Amino acid sequence: MKNPILLFCFLICGQLSAQKLTIPFEQRENYSATYLETVDFYEKAAAAYSKMLQLRTYGMTDAGYPLHLAILSANGEFSPEKIRAQNKRIVLINNAIHPGEPCGVDASMLLFRDYLTDKEMRADLENTVVIAIPFYNIGGGLNRGSHSRANQNGPEAYGFRGNAKNLDLNRDFIKNDSKNAQTFVEIWREWQPDVFLDNHTSNGADYQYTMTMIATQKDKLSPLLADYLTENMLPDLYAGMKKADWEMIPYVNVADTPEGGIYGFLDLPRYSSGYAALHHALGFTGETHMLKPFADRVRSTYTFMKILVKKVNADYQKIGNLREMTRQAAAQQMTFPVNWTIDTTAREDLLFKGYTAKYKPSAVTGLDRLYYDHAAPFEKNVPFYNTYRQTVSVKKPAAYLIPQAYSEVAERLLANGAAVKKLSKNVLLPVEMYRITDYKSRPAPYEGHYLHYAVETETENRTQDFRKGDYIVYVNQSANRFIVETLEPQAPDSYFAWNFFDGILMQKEYFSSYVFEDLAAEILENNADLQKELEAKRQSDAEFAKSGRAQLDFIYRNSPHYEPTFNLYPVARLTEDLEIETE
Ligand SMILES: [Zn+2]
Hints:
Layout lengths: L3 H16 L4 H4 L7 H14 L4 E8 L5 E7 L7 H6 L3 E6 L8 H15 L10 E6 L4 H5 L36 H13 L3 E7 L9 E5 L7 H21 L4 E3 L11 E2 L8 H7 L3 E7 L5 H21 L1 H17 L2 E8 L4 E15 L6 E18 L2 E8 L3 E4 L4 H9 L5 E2 L4 E15 L10 E15 L4 E4 L5 H8 L25 H13 L2 H13 L1 H5 L1 H10 L14 E3 L9
């Protein structure tokens, strides 16, 4: 810069912008920044500290605004590939997925500002790059008010839980109905974070702690990562928070009251931390307590993020090695659990600082009501149930074959980093296919879907036609876990469960009784076994014996006229590792 006046202005203006990096929360402690104030802060911060901070825009959200990502890299390297090549760990922080629980929005601004301005703090960024989505649910954030969190203690105004399509984005990580989630997946794939944190505020019981936390369910993680998480990382995070005067406890998920027991949360892949687990990342959900003042929730969230980053930075090599070993193991793994259930016989003691739960007559109903007596605090062991057992596991096939009609499934697999290829010609293949023999569905829409559960299947060996352009997904990848847990129909967050294959669940052809009568007689004449089965059923089932339609239907279902594709799950399992030509 040749012009000394310009140089002078450049220096002064730069300093001015740095000084102006205040966060609305610092002026008013019960105030949470709006979406636009949040973006404005990061824009100013990135302009003032362009060597350490970039603010990038990614794809759209349902609200018509793009999703932002703030990238804090102490050495000024902003390319995810180069950051990985430099053997640095990447921590992704997500804020305002539930904009009514916004403490992470304000805490992240404070944290980023402090890293930028405090050289000592930046020592924690030597081997770690922190990236943050400043405001994930923009549509919810724009729907701002002061009443939707009826039980929450501040802030004075905040956004709404549903996004612009009224979807709960913390159920949308697999089905990806929202543009927000589609863009999130794009960010995830590009950055491949090692550690993930989603910031929330709790509902539920009352107790003494401000910060509670869900660590991704250990029994769903690979043993390598689970051991590190439970033996090393979590004890350090809890100890760090205690030392910083924000003593923390696992998320208080209760059936009744904490004294009755706290239950570990099964973070299925629809949730953010469960999604992280499918990608072999360590996932956390911060849940500050709704009844504590907003300022305390912001400060405890800030402290937790700082301690988390410090821990990741200290263990960067270990976390990197464990994740690499886990990815390699996943590519070789033969059997994959796809569903779990809590083991209530595996009880641990958790030292807990609560308030005694008591009952008194309600002023509203006259009936007994629960209250937590702040005059009767306690510190004692409560039961903690945090062991999950596998209930369904599957042997992996060599590959899954997905008919091209289901392109939206293939697109989601691709977006999540799975290698998906297309067949280059028609081919007849010996495969295993599932017949869906039973399932239940939610009676009312759940996040835009009639989610299926309790799915049961029978396996059929078939020789099946596949056409040029159908998809083949080999199960020899580090993305194996994602592939298996989304394509096996019994997995609770499979694409089958989320209604991507519902066309197969409806019979398309039937018969007219009066026409089928003669054909049914002919079928029986030529099939003595079926005739015997029919007679046996008439003997054992009085209702059946009285119904002509039921008897004809029995013959129809056991005849070639009955449609073979009804309830046949169309994703096939190639069990032999055959060389198949692909595009
Ligand atoms: Zn939440």
